[in-house]
Design brief:
about 450 residues, alpha+beta, Phosphorylase Kinase, domain 1, Transferase(Phosphotransferase), domain 1, 3 domains, five-stranded mixed beta sheet, nucleus, ATP-binding, EC 2.7.11.1, ATP binding, nucleotide-binding
Length: about 450
């Protein structure tokens, strides 16, 4: 039940004690928000339950009467006019307001709409029955995760918990305030991006950033993460991306230790479709790795999507060379040989896909300092073996595909079209499953397709 807290001094002392009590007191007693009366005869109301309702009905937490509102306004108030809720009273969850009225609940002068929901933010003004009748000011007592972010971002999105971080910057879960839809917002500091003297390569050129963003926003494929919005600021680029609940492929491999051959094939086929879509549009990813492959759900049979394809155009060349161990273990040898300072073909993505497939099937990397010579030297020479015991049960076709993709000479590597036509992927059951996940029509597996990745048949001696 909401509490009417009279007096400014009591209100301030309560607010100052909230944070010291959060860890020790039961969750249901946490005061997570407060409504301050505006044109209503209530000074303030503490919100400390999952859900708070207001209206004329006697079952509400706040029962509105003639003691609170003029008769003219009260006559337009519904039995349950609106509900404010915060799941589990968890301070990291957003606060929702749902309009259940006939005559309207308004936030900052804008009507929510009957049975519709919106996310509240600190200092939002709630009006009842008419946009001019401002009844409450909402105060969010949770820690402010939006400190330092542009007003353009915080006005549109509720900033939630940190999802992860990487070489390019921080990723946070955000909610669009109007629709309550979840997104992942990648915050990329421009000092991590390439800034050169040449105007065509300058990330501080808003026109270039927005042109690239427009290209990325226009991409549409079931296996490519959708870009919802982008905001360019002097020090950072804010990319609002489709949110994938299943996490990334790296965590899936770590959790499972390795993936069986059928699951690896299901995931690899979808990755190849994403890469083909990008390559057909002249886009080379350049940073394919399990961290950049996101899963839609925690189910084993799930849709996956390739992410971070847009950042490859912006990332500083030196940062391509950075990883946890100091060697970019998914990067093609031609990138290492030239120190990341040359132009590359789309074949760099084929190499990376080969390393990802190797990792899926065995839970290990083909190149590692633990194998003797430095991993970078192994990559440059294409030196790897199928060491892990798991390889004993892996088909020869899978191993052959990996060998063909991990050829040092990029000219001798297959194209993405050839990979998609390889015999290992001629598995009707897996392909039909993948096509259902991608919502594509079932594809015929023809016998006359490209056999680029099959070994030549041995000639019989006469």
């Amino acid at each position: 039940m909401a509490r009417d807290t009279q007096g400014t001094q009591a209100t301030q002392s309560q607010a100052s004690n909230i944070w010291t009590q959060v860890e020790s007191q039961p969750m249901e007693n946490i005061v997570w928000g407060r409504l301050y009366g505006k044109n209503i005869k209530i000074k303030s109301l503490d919100l400390n339950n999952d859900e708070f309702s207001a209206g004329r009905g006697e079952a509400n937490d706040l029962i509105l009467t003639l003691n609170d509102l003029p008769e003219k306004i009260l006559s337009r108030i519904s039995k349950v006019h609106f509900i404010i809720k915060r799941a589990n009273c968890d301070l990291t969850n957003p606060v929702y307001i749902q309009d259940l009225s006939r005559n309207g609940t308004f936030v900052n002068g804008e009507k929510i709409g009957t049975n519709k929901t919106r996310i509240l933010q600190n200092d939002d003004i709630i009006a009842l029955s008419h946009p001019t009748y401002k009844a409450f000011v909402f105060k969010d007592l949770s820690p402010n995760e939006a400190i330092g972010l542009p007003a353009e971002i915080t006005a549109t999105y509720y900033i939630n918990r940190k999802l992860g971080s990487g070489a390019y910057g921080l990723v946070r879960l955000v909610y669009e305030r109007r629709t309550c839809e979840q997104f992942a917002m990648k915050i990329v500091k421009k000092n991590m991006l390439e800034v050169s003297a040449h105007p065509n390569n300058n990330l501080n050129d808003p026109e270039r950033v927005l042109n690239e963003a427009k290209i990325m926003k226009n991409l549409s494929h079931p296996c490519v993460v959708r870009m919802h919005d982008i905001v360019d600021k002097p020090d950072s680029v804010y990319m609002v991306l489709e949110f994938m609940r299943g996490g990334d492929l790296l965590n899936r491999i770590i959790t499972k230790k390795l993936l069986n051959e059928d699951t690896s094939k299901l995931y690899f086929y979808q990755m190849c479709h994403a890469v083909k879509y990008l390559h057909d549009r002249g886009i080379t990813h350049r940073d394919l790795k399990p961290d950049n492959v996101l899963l839609e759900s925690n189910d084993e049979d799930t849709l996956l999507k390739v992410s971070d394809f847009g950042l490859s155009k912006f990332v500083h060349k030196d940062s391509v060379m950075r990883t946890l161990c100091g060697t970019p273990l998914y990067v093609a040898p031609e990138v290492l040989i030239t120190g990341g300072r040359a132009s590359y073909t789309q074949k760099v993505d084929i190499w990376s896909l080969g390393v990802v497939l190797y990792t899926c099937l065995s839970g290990t990397l083909p190149f590692s300092d633990e194998y003797g010579s430095p991993a970078g030297e192994q990559i440059k020479k294409g030196q790897f073996r199928f060491r892990h015991p798991a390889w004993q049960s892996i088909s020869q076709r899978a191993k052959l595909l990996i060998k063909q993709m991990l050829i040092v000479d990029p000219e001798k590597r297959p194209s993405i079209d050839a990979v998609l036509k390889c015999n290992w992927l001629r598995d009707t059951t897996i392909l039909q499953k993948a096509n259902r996940l991608m919502k594509l029509e079932d594809m015929e597996i023809g016998e006359d397709e490209n056999n680029f990745l099959e070994p030549p048949t041995k000639r019989r001696r006469q």
